[in-house]
Each structure stands twice: as structure tokens, then as C-alpha cells.
Amino acid sequence: MLKSLRQRLETLGLVFAEWFVPKLPRRTCAWLGETMGGLLFHLARHSRHVALANINAVYGNSLPAAERRRIAKMSFRNFGRGMIDLFWSPRLTADNWRDFLKVEGMENIEDTKKNDVGRIFVASHAGAFEWGFMPAGFLGLHGIGVAETYRNEALTGTFHRLRGICGQEIIPQQGAFLRMFKHLKRGGTVGSMVDLSIHPKQAATIIRSFGREACTPMLHAVLQERIGVAIMPIVAEAQPDGTCRVHFLPALRRREGETVQHIAQRTWDVFESFIREKPERWLWAYKHWRHLPADATVPYPFYANSSKPFEKLKRTLAKAR
Fold first, then answer.
1. Is 28 exposed, middle or buried (0-12, 13-18, 19+ CB in 10 A)?
2. Per-residue pLDDT tens digits for 80-124
3. What is the mean pLDDT of the chain?
4. Between the CA atoms of 238, 41, 192 and 98, what dihedral angle is there, to the nearest 10 degrees?
5. Which band of pLDDT confidence, cut at 50, 70 and 90, is reported for residue 2?
6. Structure pTM?
7. What is the distance between the alpha carbons of residues 119 and 188, in angstroms, rounded to a whole number?
8. 214 φ/ψ angles, rounded to the nearest 5 degrees
9. HSE (side-chain half, CA atoms, 13 Å) at 297
10. What is the mean pLDDT of residues 28-39?
11. pLDDT above 70 as % of the chain
12. DSSP tally for the chain: helices H, then strands E
């Protein structure tokens, strides 16, 4: 009963947001998103607890408590801005998108067109990640993007529709690898997030994220290992005037002898460097470190738990190395 009521309220909220947000000026969107994110920081007690636990685990006493709280709050504000921007995205068109998405690194795009069969655009939950993939679609690099599904089908449909505004096809994680493989073999493009926390029995590998082991997707790394396609990291950052700076970084290509785990780690290192410059860019309220290693020598957040599948995956990867 309560679940059904919650889903109905979520659906009504989505319908209203899809109608209302595109009517707003860009600067108003920036203010509204950050304001809502700030309110969420105070109201969403559990998410705030997760964010602070993550920041405390990584930085500990190297940062004052007030600074750690500031990073957490700014992270919520950044997330709020990203959600409002996503709901405003139906206003983006082939004619006006350059007014709002300021693209850097086009030379890196041209480089992959000349030297690679296909490309995998990758991003993390940092900065304006919801708009990070948009320019690729508007530039005619129509491809496949992988996104999670929600228990509420209305959420899944809405977010897939909004993320596909630029012409990208959004597909669920189930069965994604084969479709991505075939698409890349034909010279297409795909997009994926690299910092999701997934179960060890899924298509997962283990990387070191801020000095801690995290179980993350390996699709992008497997595809590069098998096909040799370029991995192109994207970083995006919202600007105060309502625009967004999107930077296509130089392509990462497989080095001889690299394993899937090595590829995944090298890809993540690009994003960790970006986040370390401004920690408030990252989505700290997400449970990035769900699995507590048996040999952990550094602090992990309160929600991390021991996991036999995780330890089994670690042994498997150790043998592969």
C-alpha cells in the first residue's frame, strides 16, 4: 500500500517536473537546482550520513569537520543542479545546444575518428554528469548508453527519455554487453558510467578508488580488450550562468599486456584526479564502497560489509595478474 502510494507520488512529481522545469530560464534553473540540493542535504538524513561517512573515510582528520560538511553539502547542491538540468534538457535542440553546452577537446574526437574503429565514452558521477554525454549525440555520434532501471517503471521511462534527448539510445544493463559489442564492431559509439557500485557476481572488476577497493563495472574495459576500441573520458562542470562546460579528454588506448582490471583502473584514475581537484564535484551520497575487504588496512564507511563473492573475485583477479 505504502509502496504503491510512494510510486504514484513519484510519478506525479515527474510529470510536473517535465512540464514545469523546461519553462524556466537557465539561470533560474541553476539557482533552483542548487537550492533544492541544499534542502535535500538537510532533509535526507540517511543520504547525508552516507556522504559524510564516505568523506570521513577518505579524508579523516586531514580536513576539519566543517570542511568535510561543506564538501558534502556542495555535493548535494551539485546533484540538485544536475537533476534540474536533466529535466530542462528537452529545451536543447540541434540549433541551440551549443549555446548551453560549451565543448572542449574536439581535437580528441577527431583523433578517434581517424585512428579508431569505435569509441566508448565514459563518465563518473562527478560534475554535470547528466549533460556530459549530450554533446556526442548532438554532434552526430549517435550511440548506445547504458542506464540503470528503477523499481518504479515511470522513473525508468522518464530518465531514459530525458537522457535520449540528444539522439542516444538508452538501454538497460541486462543484455547490454552483446548489443554494445555488435554496435562497436560496426564503428558505433557507446556510453557508460565507470563508478557504479555493483555486485561481484555481475560484470564486475575491482579497482582502487581513493585508496579503497571498489567493485565497479568492467564493460568498457572488456570491450577495449576484445575489440581495441578507444575509451574517451568525459568530464563536465556546471557554470554559474546556466551553461555547462563539457571536455572530451584524450582517448585511452590499450597498452600491450594490460588486463581488464588494469584498463578499468587506468580509466578510473583519470576521474579520481578530476575529483581530487574539487571533491565537492563527486556524488558522495552514493555507496561507492559496499564491500569490506578481509585484509582492509584503511577505514571504510559504516555501510561496507564483508562479502564472500567479493573475496572470490579478488582471488580470481589475483590469479589473472
1. middle
2. 999 999 999 999 999 999 999 999 999 999 888 777 778 899 999
3. 91
4. -20
5. low
6. 0.92
7. 7
8. -130, 140
9. 2
10. 96
11. 98
12. 13, 9
**Start-to-end CA span in the chain (Å):** 50
Beta bridge partners of 121: 191, 232
Q: Up-side HSE of residue 17: CA atoms within 13 Å toward CB?
A: 23
Handedness of CA 6, 158, 124, 35 (dihedral sign): negative
Q: Kindly list the distances between the CA atom of residue 239 and the CA atoms of 51, 114, 118, 149, 251, in Å, as whole numbers in the listed order.
A: 23, 32, 31, 29, 25
Can you tell me the distance from the alpha carbon of 300 to that of 55, in angstroms, rounded to the nearest whole number?
A: 10
Instruction: Give me the DSSP letters along 230-272.
Output: EEEEEEEEE-TTS-EEEEEPPPB-PPTT--HHHHHHHHHHHHH
C-alpha cell at 169: 539510445
SS3 content of the chain, % helix, strand, coil (to 5): 55, 15, 30
- Can you tell me which residue has the cell 540528444? 166
Measured in residues, the chain has a length of 321
Residue 144 has pLDDT above 70, yes or no: yes
Q: What whole-number distance in Å separates Cα of residue 229 and Cα of residue 191?
A: 13
Enumerate the H helices of 21-126 as residue ranges. Answer: 26-43, 45-59, 65-88, 97-100, 106-115
Cell digits of residue 8: 504514484
Range 247-268 average pLDDT: 94
Q: Which residue has the higher pLDDT, 186 or 68?
A: 68
Which grid cell is 305? 560489509
Residue 1: the pLDDT is: 58
* Pairing mode of beta strands 144-146, 189-193: parallel
In sequence order, which residues have a C-beta less than 8 Å from that of residue 244 and are 6 or more positions away?
85, 100, 101, 102, 128, 131, 236, 237, 238
Sheet with 189-193: list strands edge to edge: 101-104, 244-248, 230-238, 119-123, 189-193, 144-146, 169-171
For residues 165-189, average pLDDT? 84
